[in-house]
Design a protein that fits this description.
Pfam families: Mkg_C, MTPAP-like_central. This is Speckle targeted PIP5K1A-regulated poly(A) polymerase. The relative contact order is 0.09. The protein has about 650 residues and is α+β, with helices and mostly antiparallel strands. The radius of gyration is 27 Å and the shape is globular. The chain contains 22 helices and 17 strands. Helix 2 packs across helix 14 and helix 8 (about 205-220) crosses helix 9.
Length: about 650
């Protein structure tokens, strides 16, 4: 099940040093993953507003004295460039000195390995290995336990390295980030001033970096392409919190080379050598038989190919796969069981190697880009819908510029436009569009029409349509959309459909929907102890209940259950305790009444949950109303609920319970 963002927010003054703050609402989170999930859920439903916020931030950035000074310096350097040397001027202006980084790495490696007395080996990864380092890039290191002594556990090694760095005179600004998906230690090398990130638990990036580095250094034009696109993306803030990562951008470059027949697919590269398996993932490849890039192609032509190709890709419906070297349809491949055999095989190998099923590919994101080796990893999962809109606009404008003969004939103007002028163009276009919309729309109707014309947002999402006036206002409703995951469908096939008599003419999504509807009924009636009265129904895809309760059963729940205890049993136990301690307690007294609806799409692949107050209740969905708090808690609980747990005990009935 998709996991919504946590609704738990610590009070002001209780935010720890390692807290991550939402870039939009400044809500604090324990780690970056939770923060990104929150932004996708809470803020992606307002792409037009988000686009304005992004462009406002870009405007401030590019009009700052520092940015203007940098632009003028680059212009002077470009004017002095020899014919054909303009791109090299840009790269030298922004790229890091790799020799300095390598010298820093050598010193750091010797310090750590000497201090740890041969019990670890230090490996670089990231931009130092790929050759795509910019001046602000840091050095990424992986520490691998080794030696004749028993290897240290990750936590033990983490603590020992942290203690050593704090005592050492070679490092400063030590920061431990323990609660990230991959815990790291961040510090600064005193001699060079370079920032260093140390990771002790995930070696995968070393394999990925080695592949990218070998690919980049095979042909200088490819490395120039990668460097310039990284500079371009960073200048326009396409890389960063809530948007693409540098690794995602490089993966897009690889796919673009593949679709233009300049690089074989990773599947073909792996067929030329024996496998190198790590926890079920094959990281082997061989570039020995890869044909060289045609000598007739210039770096500028490679750049144009990139922008033109991605200006035509429908990201919402596609998966960019370097493993297969192509752009795939979501529904035909990962959206359909058996549509991607290599993916299914790797998932099984990973489960066999680790003893537990890996997390499935996050298909419900705004943008889907597959890791070259870890096929279940969506390297674009952090891109929100509004940021995808911004990325697409930047790519389209860049494609137009690279196709403009007047600009391409004057490289100094082309590169200045791509790195600085493109942002001016975006802001100017947005201002013109806003003025046209304002003139064409009566002032009293503008707020309603903006809400009604928002483009669809990938699940999970929430919309909050507020009243623009007491009369002729649209219904006040909060919505949440759920779609089946690949693991949900696999679970149904293996556990449920094998033991129930079913109509084989019906799609599997029909049974997913039926099981999910029963799950929601259980949560409402048993876990939240709500009184529900069926008002409307059209089986199997539509239900509308009147819900009510006089005390709070939804706040303050714990999701940390004991060993051997199911999620449902743990939540039910809390409900029983709440009924004893909260009934009649003024602190938990509420007057909660409203409508709760379920509406499925015609193909049963999407289930929308709606909650709305009773007619005339204008405060029913205010920010801190009981109905709003219930709905937020309900989504949070669904995100923690195990579909497999429900499906394992679910018996399909032709007619659902009408309670």
């Amino acid at each position: 099940m998709p996991a919504p963002a946590s609704e738990i927010t610590p009070p002001p003054g209780d935010v720890g040093d390692n807290m991550v703050l939402c870039m939009v609402c400044a809500a604090p989170f324990q780690n970056m993953q939770d923060c990104l999930a929150h932004e996708l859920l809470k803020h992606a439903s307002k792409p037009q507003k988000q686009m304005r916020q992004r462009l406002n931030a870009i405007t401030k950035l590019f009009t700052s004295a520092q940015a203007q000074s940098e632009r003028n310096e680059l212009r002077e350097a470009l004017e002095k460039s020899a014919p054909g040397g303009h791109l090299r001027t840009v790269l030298d202006f922004f790229a890091s000195d790799l020799r300095k980084m390598e010298a820093c790495f050598g010193h750091v490696r010797n310090c750590i390995e000497k201090e740890m007395r041969g019990r670890v080996r230090v490996f670089p990864f990231g931009s130092l290995v790929t050759g795509l380092a910019l001046k602000e890039s840091d050095i990424d290191l992986y520490l691998q336990p080794c030696g004749e002594q028993p290897p240290m556990f990750h936590k033990q090694l983490y603590n020992k390295v942290s203690y050593f760095l704090r005592r050492s005179k070679c490092f400063e600004d030590i920061c431990t980030i323990r609660h990230a998906r991959v815990p790291i230690i961040r510090c600064k090398h005193q001699l060079t001033g370079l920032n260093i990130d140390i990771n002790m638990s995930n070696p995968n990036s070393t394999y990925n970096s080695r592949f990218i580095g070998e690919l980049m250094f095979r042909d200088e034009r490819v490395r120039e392409l990668g460097l310039f696109l990284k500079i371009w993306a960073r200048k326009l803030k396409l890389i960063g919190h809530g948007s693409m990562t540098s690794y995602c951008l490089v993966t897009l470059i690889i796919v673009n080379l593949q679709v233009h027949q300049l690089l074989p697919s990773v599947k073909q590269l792996q067929s030329l050598c024996p496998p190198v398996n790590m926890c079920g993932v094959n990281y082997a490849y061989s570039l020995d038989l890869t044909p060289p890039v045609s000598a007739r192609l210039t770096t500028l032509e490679l750049l144009k190919n990139f922008f033109v190709y991605y200006s035509t890709v429908n990201f919402e419906k596609s998966i960019l796969s370097p493993f297969l070297g192509s752009c795939l349809d979501k529904e035909i491949t990962l959206g359909t069981p058996g549509g991607f055999p290599e993916y299914d095989e790797q998932m099984q190998l990973m489960q066999d190697a680790t003893g537990e099923p890996p997390e499935a590919f996050q298909l419900d994101r705004a943008m889907c880009v597959q890791d070259p080796f870890e096929l279940q990893h969506n390297v674009a999962k952090s891109v929100s819908q509004s940021n995808l809109c911004y990325i697409r606009q930047c790519i389209i404008l860049a494609a137009q510029a690279c196709s403009d003969q007047e600009l391409t004939s004057q490289p100094e103007k082309l590169y200045d436009y791509l790195l600085f002028g493109l942002a001016d163009k975006l802001v100017a276009d947005r201002l013109v569009a806003d003025k046209k919309a304002e003139k064409a729309t009566p002032r009293k109707q503008q707020k309603i029409e903006v809400v009604q014309t928002q483009p669809p947002v990938c699940e999970p999402k929430e919309t909050n349509i507020e009243m623009a006036g007491i009369y002729n206002a649209p219904p006040i409703v909060r919505s949440h959309v759920i779609t089946p995951t690949t693991n949900d469908l696999k679970c149904l096939r293996s556990v449920v459909l094998s033991r129930n008599k079913i109509d084989e003419s019906r799609p599997i999504y029909y049974y997913w929907l039926a099981c999910y509807v029963d799950t929601i009924k259980d949560v409402l009636t048993q876990l939240y102890a709500l009184n529900i009265e069926l008002k409307e129904s059209e089986e199997p895809g539509y239900y509308k209940w009147l819900i009510s309760i006089s005390y709070d059963t939804y706040s303050g729940r714990s999701f940390q259950r004991g060993a051997g205890q199911s999620f449902f049993a743990h939540q039910l136990q809390q409900t029983i305790e709440f009924s004893k301690t909260r009934v009649g307690n003024p602190q938990y007294a509420v007057n909660l009444r409203g409508y709760f609806s379920l509406l499925a799409s015609e193909d049963y692949k999407e289930l929308r949950l709606d909650v709305q107050p009773l007619p005339g209740d204008l405060l029913g969905l205010q920010r801190n109303s009981p109905l709003t708090k219930l709905f937020k808690a309900f989504k949070n609980l669904l995100g923690n609920y195990s579909f497999k747990e429900k499906a394992s005990t679910w018996e399909f009935c032709a007619k659902s319970d009408q309670n």
